[in-house]
Structures are given as structure tokens and as C-alpha cells.
Amino acid sequence: MAGNEVNILRAFYEGVAGLASAYRITLKHLFRKPITEQYPEYKRPLPARSRARIILTRDADGDERCVACFLCSAVCPVSCISMESGEREDGRRYAQWFRINFARCIYCGFCEEACPTLAIQLTPDFEFCQRDILKLVYEKEDLLVDHGGKNAEYDFYKHAGVAVKGDKGTHYQEAAPVNIKTNLP
Amino acid sequence: MPRLTIDDIEIEVPHGTKVIDAAERLGIMIPRFCYHRGLGSVGACRMCAVKFLQGPFKGLQMSCMIDAQDGMVISTTDAEALDFRRHVIEWLMLNHPHDCPVCDEGGHCLLQDMTVSGGHGMRRFSGEKRTYRDQYLGELVQHEMNRCIHCYRCVRFYREFAGYRDLGALQIAQKVYFGRLADGPLESPFAGNLVDLCPTGVYTDKPARFRARRWDLERGPSLCIHCSLGCNTVAGARYREVLRQEARLNEEVNGYFICDLGRYGFAYAGHPERPRSPRIGSQAVGWQEAVAVACDRLARLGPRSIACLSSARASVETLGTLKYLSKRVGSDHFVCFYDAAVKFKMGEIVSKLDGRTAVSLRDIEKADLLIGVGADPINAAPMLALAMRQAQRAGAKVVMMDPRPLFLPCDFEHLSVSPELFDVCLSALVKSTFDRERVGKHGEAAVTLYDRMLSCDPLDASVQARLEPLIAVVEGCRRPIIICGSDIAPASSVSFAADVALLMGEVKDQSGVFYVLPGANAYGAALFDAANGSSFESVVQEIEDGAIKALIVAESDPFRYVADRDRLQRALNKLELLLVLDYLPSETVRKAHIFLPTRAIFETRSSFINQEGRLQVAEKIHSPGTPIWQVSNKGHPPRLYGTGICGGEPRAAWRVLQQIAHTLVHSQNEISENDPWPVIGGECAVLARHHQHNGPLHGLRIIPQTSTAAFFDGDLDLQPKQPMDGHLTLLPVVSTFATEELASYSEIIQRVIGSPCAYLHSDDAERCGLLDCDRIRIAVDDGFLEIDLTVSDKMARGFLILPRHSRFEWQKLHCFAQGLPVEKIGNCTP
């Protein structure tokens, strides 16, 4: 019988202690400084790698980085990116047109991961909802920005080895072109 | 047959099969770069290494170099093999540039696939990358030499397989360069195959440069309809436009390759001026109204006052349904060939091609003697020249009888005789091969023909001297094939060629005749057209007489073929109704009273019958519509969307024709709306057995096993004519890429065709006081035709050879036969 009484006493004690600890936390928070931020009155700075509105960046020379390689449109799980590629007079591959339908975009960031030229990047800017859904279809002019985004100095064409932005053999880690008119070593 | 085990699976393969192919039969794709079944093995890339565990070979070996043998046990996934291949790919990637995003091969690149599957990700070597300067290789192929991995596929195809010399390997050791000595367009009409062959992006498709990735294309099996061979292609479309075509393997027809016309001739379907909506006069109207008005006007005309025209570029579906319609409206006239002589020859050809005489392009490659009769393969059917070269590489002798200065990418004996002498020469060449007893098996007519061959007059000494050694070759050969053109060859030669092929079959192991026909579906057109007696001439005559009041033209353009355009124009003006169905912006379409737009081959399922009687099907690739770049003028596509597709109105011609037939004769019960084949079968007994849903992938031969036609009845022309001194006979001939109708609407092809050029024998030129590279003019009815002249001594005397070139109004020349006034006006335009 005695053991039974001990169990009841312990249960009583635990019940009271549990209630009291909850009141203790509540009481403690009553006197703490609040952490709630009043959005939109206060806009909290987000980390640079937050995933929201997509931009097309430029390289250090101010030329558009996108080469319209179709990797972003291929990887996009909701098919919200479409483009057509073309050749500029200087031989550069570029996007004749480039369209992102933000009404469909799920901001997964796959496009940014796939982009070999670091052209397409997601930015922290998430506040651009519209009542008219067509206004969420962004064309190339709307997407292009005049800075290099997260990695401002990278320039794809300095690594690619094609004769754009300098002749063959002038790019990063390249030997001079082979002279095909002589067999001398 | 050897039995071997690959990755624990047993397989039995024919003798001579390489291990790499045996594995492929099991669905095991051993990585490869240099090996290509069409080109054979060289063992250059070391990528196909596998481990031989048991059998005559042991250890790591190249699977492309070893024939499958009994008792072999092979592992493709052995750790040693995997490690070896991983290293190979790493070596190959040492110098490969980092340019996949701007490379058109990306997405269907063998090197990309192998690198990823081999697990190579980071370049460990930190030295400099080798670079090359690129060359301009013409408008069709883009060169980017940095990407090369030195598999040698390109030069093996270009020089060994295709027989052209202007692309080769330069430099030595690890600096080997594949290109030309200097910049310039590739000379071979097969250069486009480099795009398919290159396992990486050294050669890419220039017209489609940067247009799309493989994964974005709507792709499907299609056909080339630019000549009669019916080569198989894969067409790829994006944004309502075909962007590129690749060769599709068909063992019986084109093999692994196609010519540049087949690859780049598609642009007519996306022509900026292509008519895409129905019209009455110049007023665009809806389909219902256009068809209703057309039916109404046709119904008001009595029977026999309607004529139907089509052409050899129309599909079997179009032709069959048009024939059905023409019968339903009581028309006597159904014409597919504008030239009565061609029409007659086509009738002969269709009746004489059967299981005994017809041969495929594959048979040509296996032949040991090829005799050409008035055929110019490079100009009229380029892939035939490639097949002939393969035969010649395997030891075959090639003899060509032709007045033109022929070019072939192989060694051949050229008898430059006039078309009148074809019969005599062929007869002299083959008659000693036969004997009366064997010929007798084919009946009286054959013996009579044989006697006539024996008795034919001797040729002049120079030709005879060249024939003598060839006669021995004909006697010794086992698999002769006669290649016969249908263009300049006279009707007698066309039927004589089949007769000789049939007789040859008696004394040789295998024999046959290979005709080159005047259009992709010329055989099909002849099936529907040849039986009736009407000709285009009689149609024009009856229009002038007022008997014919309406003309239905389905996928045809008489203005392209008829010499007397003024007469044709006057005749058309007399018509009460000119109903045109087409997909080209042709002269006839512009003159149509009612126009109905139809679908091109890429936009509807359609069937074509090639020159050996093989029925092949091209699938629908994409829905019709104006290409997006035309709608948006290369900018962003429209942002607002309608319900219909812009420019998506064209309908399959057979549907429209069937609808007109329904409306006119109110007989809906017997025909299916979605299947043209019951109607086609009703119109052509040969096709009745076939249905659009069956048939093997490589096509179905519809020729009879044994033709019931009368052989040996040709009216042979065995009396050699004396050449008439001082007269020049005019010979209009086919010109590579420049003659064909669809190609003339294809912007890419127009960029690469050369300027027209006439040929004259050096003796004739000397007599006329003309020199090579002179610019000459020829007087025709209304003014002059100007053309550059090339003097050659490799052609027949007494001919002025003129190309039916899209930049040369050859139609005007039909008025002339002999005594041609030719004068020099200056030198060649540079």
C-alpha cells in the first residue's frame, strides 16, 4: 500500500511542477524585448543567396552574360523559362529573346545552379506580385540588370576557348594556335 | 554462327560481326568514338576497351577490332575495363575546351555523354590547352577545331567513303588538324554528314546554328523528297519550324548517310511567303466558305469539263484522293507528268520493275559491275553516287554511257556517246554474255530481241576500241546492275535496260536495273497517271477549245515545267475555275481563283514510293503554323494568346480533296474521314493490299514478284546515226541542288548552289570560236539567254549542255532542237 501512496505523491508533484514551469516561461517572456518586425513598415535585409526574383546579370565588361544555352529552360521543373538563341555580329551567342513567367516560377533556384555563365541569378527581392497575371511575364529587358550579381568578376568567354572576346589561344590556360602549314615541332 | 557471352548473356551473331556490334544487339552500348558501323573500325580512340575473360583473346582488347568468335566470354563492366575507359576519357578531355554552353552539339554530344558516364568531372592536368584556328567551310558546316578528339571519323568518311579530297588531316602527332588547305566551301555534296558523324562539336549544322537544343526539338522519322531515292531522315522542329534534319538508318535505302540536299532542303516548308490561308481571288476567307464555293462552282460544271493536275512531289495520299475525286466528277484528265515522253517512260518503268529486276541502293553497293545509261548520279540522285563508290571500292567496275561531262567520286569508264547510241552501246556491251538457249527461256520475243542485238551495226572505231575490254568485264562479272536515267535516256533505252537486266539474271548470280526517276513520288504518280491516255498537251488543247472549264491543281506548278508560258497563261485565263491546293508560294498559286493551303511533308503523315517501288512513310513532325520568329520578327513572341495557331490553317491535301468529293457526290457512307487508304486502294489495285498502319520501318516494296508486262517489246533504236556536222543539239540536264522544285524555295540551298554553266565539247567550241569561261548568249523567242560556258573534252560532240538551273530560264529553250545560234558576249562573270 505504501508504494502506491508514493506514486500518487510523485504524480501530484510532477503535475504541479509542469504547470509552474510553463507559467515561469510565460512570466519570463512578459519582461523580454519583443523580436517581431513590423513588415512592411520594417524590411529586414535578407541574405544575398535568398531565392526570389530572377535577374540576368552582366559581366565585368558590361556585356550580357547569358549565352542562351537552354540549360535553365531544360532544368526548370515548371517550364517557366523560354528563349531563342541567336548569333550576334561579333560571333557571340546571345538570347534573341528571353522570357520568364514568374506566375509559374517556384523559385527553386535550379536555373541558377544550371547556369554555366552565372548569368541567371535569384535575388532576395520577393515583393513583386501583381494583380494582372500578364505583368508577371518578364521579358529580357525586364530581367537584365547592369551589374554582375553575386560573382561580379567571372567571365565565361575568357574560359570557353571559342574565338569570341579575343582570338584563339588568348584565353585562360591556352597555348598559341597550332600552325597547320608546318610540321616542325 | 559464333556464340559468345557478353556480360553473362549469351548471343549468337553472324560471322564477321564485331564484338561491339554483338553487344549492341544485346542492348549493351559499349562507349565508342572512332567506330561507326557505316565506316568500319580503326581502333583509334581506345574507348571501346572491354575485358575478354575466355576464348581466343584474353585481357583488355578493343571491342571494335575483334570479330565475335565461338566461346568468347566478355565483360564490359570489368573493373580494369572501366578504369581504362575512365583514363581514356580523361586524356581526351585534356585539350577539350570549356565551351559546351555555346556548342550546338551540347545535348546530343557523344563526348559529353561519355565524360559524364565515365565520371570525369574536374580537369586534373594544369597545363595549357592546345588550340587551333577554325576554317570557313561553306554555308552548311560550321568548323570549331578546338573541340576535336582525333577520332578520324570525318576524314574517313570524306576521303575514303565519299571520295572527295578537299578535307584531310594536316600537321602531325598531337597537333593533327582536320580541315582544308585553305578556307573555302566543302566540295562534297555529302559534307553535311560530317555533322552527324562527328562525335563532338567540331562540325556542326550551320543553318541551324544556335537555334535549338536536341531536347527541345519535336523529332520524328521523315523522308527526303528532293529526288527519287527516298532517303530516310529524322526531322527536328521547334517553334513551328523544321530546324534541322539528320540521316536515319535504313539498311535498304540510304544506309547511315544522306546528301546535303536531303539534309538542308527543308526550308521550303517555312518559306516566309508560304500561303497559309484559303483564298477566293485575292480575298482571304475561311475554310468552310472556300470549300463551299469551290464545290458549288465545280458542281455547276458538267462531267468531262474538269481536269486534275498533280506532280511527282505529291504524296500517295494526295494523288490517290485526287484520282478518286477526278473519277467522281467524271473527269477524263489526270496528269502528273508535264512531259509526254517522261510520262511514257514512267509507264514503261512501272510495268517492268518487278521482283526480278528491281534493286535497292544496298544491292548497288554489292554489285561488281555497274553500267550507267544516261544517268548522272551526282546531279540527279547524289546518294546513288555514294553507293556506286562503295561498289567500286569493293572492286566493281563502273561504266557510264552519257553525253555529259560526268563527275563521279570514283574511277569509272566514261563512254561519252549521244543518247541515240545508248541502245547500240549497251547491246554491243552485253550481247556476247548471252546465248540463244538461255535467252530462249524468256520466249520468242526475247530471241527476236537477241537476234536484233546480234545484228546491230558496228559502232565507230573509237567507241568500239573502248568497248572491247569492257565486253570481257561484262562476261566475267557475276552481279551486274544497269543504272538507267529517265531524263535524257530515250524511251527505247529505258525499256531495253530492263530487258537486258532480266536476261542478265539468267546468266549471272544477281542482276537488276536501277532507275533514276524524275521525282520523289514519280513511281506513285505513274501508278495513278500512266494508265490513262491524257497528257498535259491535250489538257491545254481542250482548255483552248473550251471543253475543259475547270482545273484542279494539287501540289503542282505547271509554270515551272512548261516552255510556252504565254500559251499556258492564256489557257488559264479561259478557265472558269482554277482551284489550287499547295504549300509553296508558286506562280500557279498566285494565279489561283480559289486557293486552299495544304500541309507539307513535316505537317502530316504521308507516304511516298521511291524509284525501286518502296512505299515509305513520313510521320507528322509538328503542327502547321507560321514559325514564331516570323510572327514576332525575331523579337519576343506575342504576349497575348488566341485560340488558334497563327498560320495553322493548312490541312492535309487528301482531307480537303476527300471533303470536296463528299460534298459533290453526297456519298459519305463508304469513306473514312481519318484514313485515306480505303480510297487509295480503290483507285490503285497495287496499293489496295497495303494500309497506312502496317509495313516495316524500312519501307515496303510494292512491286509485283513477277511483272505481267511484256518484256522485250521495246522499239530498239539500233542504227547508229551519223553525227551531223556543224549542228549543236541542245540538251537540258539536271543540275545538283539547282533543278529541284522544292529546293528552289529553300533559302539555305539557294545560298550554296553555284551559278549556272553550259558545257560544250572542245572541238565544237573551237569551231564556234568559243573558249572556256566565255559568257555566251542564246537567242530564244523573246530575247536572249545568257550563261557561262565551260569547255570540256570529256563529253559527246555536237551537244550544248544546259542546266535546268533555278537561275536560268531553261523553260524557254524547249523551242529549239538544232542549229542553235550561240554567240559570245564576253567573259565569265567572276
Description:
Chain A has 185 residues and is α+β, with helices and mostly antiparallel strands. The longest helix of chain A has 29 residues. Chain A is elongated. In chain A, the strands form 2 sheets. Chain A has a 3-stranded antiparallel sheet with strand order 2-3-5. A two-stranded antiparallel ribbon of chain A has the order 1-4. Chain A has 5 helices and 6 strands. Chain B has 830 residues and is of the alpha/beta class. Among the domains of chain B are: 90 residues, Ubiquitin-like (UB roll) (Roll); 174 residues, Dimethylsulfoxide Reductase, domain 2, CATH 3.40.228; 99 residues, Barwin-like endoglucanases, CATH 2.40.40.20. In chain B, 30% of the residues lie in helices and 19% in strands. Chain B contains 28 helices and 34 strands. A 7-stranded mixed sheet of chain B has the order 15-14-25-24-23-16-17, sandwiched between helices. A 6-stranded mixed sheet of chain B has the order 29-33-30-32-31-34. In chain B, strand 3 and strand 4 form a beta hairpin. In chain B, helix 7 packs across helix 24, helix 9 runs parallel beside helix 17 and helix 9 packs across helix 18. Chain B is globular, with a radius of gyration of 28 Å. The N and C termini of chain B lie far apart (61 Å). The mean pLDDT of chain B is 90. Strand 6 of chain A pairs parallel with strand 6 of chain B.
